Amino acid sequence: MKQFKLPDVGEGLTEAEIVRWHVKAGDPVKVNQIIVEIETAKAVVELPCPFEGVVAALMADEGETVDVGRPIISVDDGTGTAPAPASSAAPGPAPERGQALAEDMVPTPPKEERQPVLVGYGVKMGAAKRRPRKSASTPPAGSPAPRSVQPPARQDTGPFTGESAAPSVREGVRENGAAAGAAPASGGRVATLAKPPVRKLAKDLGVDLTTLTGSGPQGSITRDDVQSAAGAVPAPAAVRAVQAGEERIPVKGVRRATAQAMVASVFTAPHVTEFLQVDVTETMDAVGRLRRLPDFAEVKVSPLLLVAKAVLVAARRYPMINSAWDEAAQEIVVKHYVNLGIAAATPRGLLVPNVKDAHAMSLPDLARALGALAETARAGRTQPADMAGGTITITNVGVFGVDAGTPILNPGESAILAFGQVRDMPWVVDGQIVPRRVCTLALSFDHRVVDGELGSLFLRDVGAMLEDPLRMLAWN
């Protein structure tokens, strides 16, 4: 029996949410078969199975947030089951899910074997191990076997139980016909079977788990049990505030990551935003000509392509705009490469993947990279690595019919450009008022790194290249 622990699929990942299982208990699995989708900070990642065998148990539910290093699935690989802890209780029925989850608390054998590191399976050797169970004192010879064992004063909890009881306690509860959701142990202490999210819900709703009869596997207490019992319990103020016509949406996944990043950015970097209206008639004409070139026959060409190219050229002219503030070292890190971030609105929320080394790409290559980035983001397949290491960002608010805004910096960057909608407007050309294609650019920058003069020069040059795209060739 082998267990697959949640790996760190991105640098610094501490937890992830189980989005969807692709297998269930009893299904055969092969090495590298996709078994689960998890949602990390802003990305949905598919995890392959590092083992071959039969799924013994799923150790985390869909929608549950799991810490890195915690087992999420056990697979019977035909090598036999893990040794059960010593217990004086009689053998119980065939293993069920709760019993399989209790195997997580079995001491790790002395001999360790490193599993192959597969895509999305990079847990380091020896990480997140359980401490050995403290065994109860051995009864004297000839004394009758106890019906239950008092849990140690402190012991690790498995993924299924919070104040966990030894398997013998659970067996004794079933044999004595005690309440399924709570098992009285010696000394008046009560052990309950409930997952951490259920315990938190009970705490928030003010429900005493020891008073409930569980309806889950092996008498475990479920969310429905807690919510049913909450009707007779005064709810906390936060819950009482919900009234008819209101809806509460849990803050997690992309929304949680976005909120944390935006708050950190606003309260860390002093933002300044400047605006510039630009006549982009020549740029729109250039987009039409590019679409007819053979090099762009199978590539989507949009005004964003030339905006991106203008930003890349201007960043080469003013390297400080492509810098980052290192608070710990009290240094400004000037980056002589550009990982160009593109803010993308997806069904899962706002994502900011970036094109790596965009400064070194030709225009057709940049067009293909932008197209692939957008397609991947819309499909919800953007990986954490695709969103790491950005240096400067563009957000295209014009696709929503918006002229301008005050964009918030992507954490770790010093500038972000908002590209507004292109629309017909009266414009003065050679002393005459004529209809032209006009848009508004908005540049937000970190005033610790970028002075007002530098921000103004950068924005002016981007605008000048969009007014006359030939300047991109002259300044590149």
The percentage helix is: 25-40%
Q: Assign the CATH topology of the domain at 254-475.
A: Chloramphenicol Acetyltransferase
The CATH class of the domain at 254-475, by name, is Alpha Beta
Based on CA atoms alone, the radius of gyration comes out at 29 Å
**Separation of the first and last Cα atoms:** 60 Å
Q: From the 3D coordinates, which CATH architecture of the domain at 254-475 would you assign?
A: 2-Layer Sandwich
The outline comes out as elongated
- Residue-averaged pLDDT: 78
Q: How much of the sequence is in beta strands?
A: 15-25%
Low-pLDDT sequence parts? 83-130, 146-189, 233-240
Description:
The chain is an alpha+beta fold. 25% of the residues lie in helices and 22% in strands. It has 12 helices and 20 strands. Helix 8 crosses helix 11 (452-467).
Task: Quickly list its features.
single chain; 476 residues; alpha+beta; Chloramphenicol Acetyltransferase; eight-stranded mixed β-sheet; four-stranded antiparallel β-sheet; 12 helices; 20 strands; 25% helix; Single_hybrid_motif
